[in-house]
Amino acid sequence: MKPHAMKFRALNALALALAALAFPAACRNTPPASTPAPEAVLAEWMTGAFSSAAQAAADPEFFEVRLVMVPIWTERADGPWLYIEQAVASALDRPYRQRVYHLVREEGGVRSEVWELPGDALDFAGAWRDATRFDAITPADLVERPGCSVHLARTAPDVWAGSTLDDHCKSDFRGASYATSIITLTPDSIESWDRGWDAAGEQVWGAVKSGYVFDRVEMPE
User: What domain range includes position 3?
Assistant: First the structure.
């Protein structure tokens, strides 16, 4: 072997030895931190209590509405399930909307399926205080609202946004033919614009100029 080749090998061996000292075996064998599943991130952002009080105070066209979402059936492995309860602040004991959301990963993002509770939904009013009340039922007891899923994608590090698809979410509420939802989520807020449309495409219910903005608040007792 030529002298310069032997010198190169010696230097290379020295460099490898120094590298080994600089990076201990424990560090070299540590696996990279796992990235949370997108549906788990969304479930965390959606869990909690929210209020449109600030928006209502600034604009009389909006009501003060309270929104609460809590995880249910947390032992299931088919994606997060959340119970949602929405009520005008002056009638918290009689929510006007009660749903179960199922977050399912799909290509490009997460699908938030919308399910209705069995029987009289008001029987579950206040169930967010004790999620074990849902142990008496299973997803098989729910009624899915076909076409009403909201398809969400991450549009920025702290923003998920999406909507229902076209006129797929059928509705007969207040003379509507179908309903649409546009949702924007951040770790501390939810903007929801729900509207109903008749067969001619005219809006018949819902906020007119923009969606409701719900800011995260302390969970009520």
Answer: 1-30
Average pLDDT, the chain: 88
pTM assigned to the model: 0.83
Average pLDDT over residues 23-48: 74
| C-alpha dihedral, 142 to 146 to 150 to 153, nearest 10° | 110
Residues 7 and 65 in one domain: no
pLDDT bucket at 221, cuts 50 / 70 / 90: confident
Structure tokens at 168: 């797929």
Distance CA(109)–CA(151), nearest Å, equals 7
Helix (H/G/I), strand (E/B), else coil: 96: coil
User: What is the torsional sign of CA 177, 102, 107, 36?
Assistant: positive
Report which secondary-structure segment, H or E, holds 42: helix 38-46
**Mean pLDDT to the nearest integer, 2-7:** 40
Q: Is the pLDDT of residue 69 over 70?
A: yes
Let me know whether 42 and 23 are in one domain: no
* Same structural domain, 89 and 118: yes
Q: In CATH, what number is assigned to the domain containing residue 172?
A: 2.40.128.590
The residues, ordered by sequence, that sit 6+ positions from 198 with a Cβ below 8 Å of its Cβ are: 175, 176, 177, 204
